[in-house]
Amino acid sequence: MANFKVSRVETTPFEGQKPGTSGLRKKVKVFIQPHYLQNFVQATFNALGADRVEGATLVVSGDGRYYSKDAIQIITKMAAANGVRRVWIGQNGLLSTPAVSAVVRERVGADGSKATGAFILTASHNPGGPHEDFGIKYNMENGGPAPEGITNKIYENTTTIKEYLIAEGLPDVDISTTGVSSFEGPKGKFDVDVFDSTSDYLKLLKYECFSYVQKQMSFCFQSIFDFPAIQKLLSSPKFSFCYDALHGVAGVHAKRIFVEELGANESSLVNCVPKEDFGGGHPDPNLTYAKELVARMGLSKTHSEPNPPEFGAAADGDGDRNMVLGKRFFVTPSDSVAIIAANAVQAIPYFSGGLKGVARSMPTSAALDIVAKHLKLKFFEVPTGWKFFGNLMDAGMCSICGEESFGTGSDHIREKDGIWAVLAWLSILAYKNKDNLGEGNLVSVEDIVCQHWAIYGRHYYTRYDYENVNADGAKDLMAHLVKLQSSIDEVNKLIKGIRSDVSNVVHADEFEYKDPVDGSVSKHQGIRYLFEDGSRLVFRLSGTGSEGATIRLYIEQYEKDSSKIGRDSQEALAPLVEVALKLSKMQEYTSRSAPTVIT
Ligand code: VG1
Ligand code: CO
C-alpha cells in the first residue's frame, strides 16, 4: 500500500476557460501549458463543492486523443488530493462518450460502489494530435453533461483560482491492465479501478431473454436491442455492412459489439483502431470527412464502386455521433431520428411499450415534428447541445431525440450514442426484412427512407459551415441578421429582389428556450427566419471550435407533394440558399465565396 501527501500548488487564472456547447476545447499547445488543465479541474471540483467531491467515485476516460494519457494521470492525482474515494478508468483510458454515460448510470464496482460523475477527455469531432485539439467536460450523476448552472460556475472559478490540490507521491497508474490499485492518503483510502471499456456499455445495449422451458416462463431483462434478430440480418448473404470509426474510440466498442457479439465480418470495420491523431484525419462523420466510407458506399464523385454494401455508418472521435448511409444513398440526420422514432415501437424491444415523447434541437429539420403529430407524441424543440435533452429524459418526458449534426440517442443514457443509432437502424432493417432474408427482395435503407417521405412528406435539408472565419466578421454578420428582423416587410422586399420564387417570411426571431422541467431560460440560441410554406433559415455561431469563429447556416424546405420528393436536395434548395447568402451578406462579412463543409 502506497502513501501520498496532498500538496497545494499556487496558480493564477488563464483567460477563456469557458466551456462551450460541449466542454472546454482548445489547442493541445494551450492545454499543455503548466497549470492549465489543473486550473480547470480544480475549478470543476470547487464548483461541485466538497459534498459532491469527497468520497465520490469518478469516471476519467475519453477518446484517446493526444495528451489524454497525461491528462488522466493529472486528474487522478488531483482527484486523490481533493478527497475523491475512487477513480474508474476504462482500459487504456478509452471510453466513448456514450460508454462513459452508460458506465456512470449502470456500472457497479466490485465493492458495490456507483459513479457520481465523470471527466470526459475529448474534443469530439475536432481533429487531434500535438498541433490540434484537446478537450475536457464534466458529466453529472445522471450520466449527462453538466447543466449551464454548473458550467457557468466552473468558468467563474477559473477567473479567480489561486491554488489547486494534487497528490504527491502517488505513482502513475498503469492504465493498460485491468484491476484495482489501492492507496492511502491523509483522508483515507483511494482506489484506481481500471476496467474493460465495453462490458458495461454492451450489457446495457443487449436485450436478453431467458426461457425456462419447464415452467413455460421467459424473463427478459430490461435492455434495448434484439441481438439475435440483428445477428440474423448480418449473417444473411443478402446483407452487407460497413462501419468507419475514423480512428476514434468507437472502433474499440465496434469490434466487440458488431464483430464478436453480432457476427459481422471483421472486414466490415474500417479505421477502427483508435489513434492519438485520428490518422491525421478530421474525425467528423459527414460526407466530406468520412471519405473512405463515402467511397465504399458508392457516393464518391471521383471513384466508382461496383458493389457497395447495403448499409454503412461512421462515428466521430468520441463515438457519440453517427452518419447513416445506404447503398449509394445518404440519410440526413434529421430524417434518421424521425425514421427511428416512427419505427421504434415495432422494431426495438426497449420501446415496445410506447414512446414517452420525442425531441430535437432547434436547427434540426421538422421531420420529427410530423412523426410526433401522426403518432400523437409529446414533442420538444430545445437549443443545440445534448445537455438540454437530459432534463426531459430525467423527468420521463422524452424517449428519443436527435440533432441535425449527426447526433441521435435515447433515454437509455444521457448522451447521444453513435453505436446505438447504428443498432437502431440495423433493428429497423431486420424488422422490415424479417420475412425476406430467404426469398424476396431486401428492403433497403433507401426504400425505408422513401416510404417514410411518401407518408410524412420530405424535408429537404442542408447545412453550410464556414469554419474558422474572422470572429469580428462573424459577430457583425449575426448583428446584421438580428437588425434585419425588426422589419419583416423590409426582409420580404429584400427577398423578392433576390428570388421571386421563394415564399414570404412570416416570423423572425432569436431562439429562446424555457426548460419545461426547471424553468431555466437560455437566450440567443440561433437566428431564425420562418417562411410561410414551412421553409426555414437558421444562423448560429458554433460553440465547439477552438480558433476563430464558425458560422453555421441551416436551410430547410418541406415538400408534401409525393411527385416532388425525389429531387436532388442541393438543387431543390438552391433558391433558398441564394436568399440566405445574399440576405446575410455572407461573402461580404466572411470574405469566403464558399463554405468549408456542406452537409
Ligand atoms: C456542435 C453541433 C451540436 C452538438 C455539438 C457537440 O455544436 O452543432 O449539435 O451537440 O457540436 O457535439 P456547435 O456549437 O459547434 O454547433 V460533439 O459530438 O462535438 O460533442
Ligand atoms: Co462527439
Automatic annotation (TrEMBL):
Residues 17-164, 232-325, 334-434 form the Alpha-D-phosphohexomutase alpha/beta/alpha domain. Its EC number is 5.4.2.2. Its cofactor is Mg(2+). The keyword Metal-binding applies. One of its GO terms (molecular function) is metal ion binding. GO terms for biological process: glucose metabolic process. Residues 1-20 are annotated as: Disordered. It catalyses: O-phospho-L-seryl-[protein] + alpha-D-glucose 1-phosphate = alpha-D-glucose 1,6-bisphosphate + L-seryl-[protein]; alpha-D-glucose 1,6-bisphosphate + L-seryl-[protein] = O-phospho-L-seryl-[protein] + alpha-D-glucose 6-phosphate; alpha-D-glucose 1-phosphate = alpha-D-glucose 6-phosphate. Keywords: Carbohydrate metabolism, Glucose metabolism, Isomerase, Magnesium, Metal-binding, Phosphoprotein. InterPro entries: A-D-PHexomutase_a/b/a-I, A-D-PHexomutase_a/b/a-I/II/III, A-D-PHexomutase_a/b/a-II, A-D-PHexomutase_a/b/a-III, A-D-PHexomutase_C_sf, A-D-PHexomutase_CS, Alpha-D-phosphohexomutase_SF, PGM. Monomer. Catalyzes the reversible isomerization of alpha-D-glucose 1-phosphate to alpha-D-glucose 6-phosphate. The mechanism proceeds via the intermediate compound alpha-D-glucose 1,6-bisphosphate. This enzyme participates in both the breakdown and synthesis of glucose. Belongs to the phosphohexose mutase family. This is phosphoglucomutase (alpha-D-glucose-1,6-bisphosphate-dependent). It comes from Solanum stoloniferum. The lineage of its organism: Eukaryota, Viridiplantae, Streptophyta, Embryophyta, Tracheophyta.
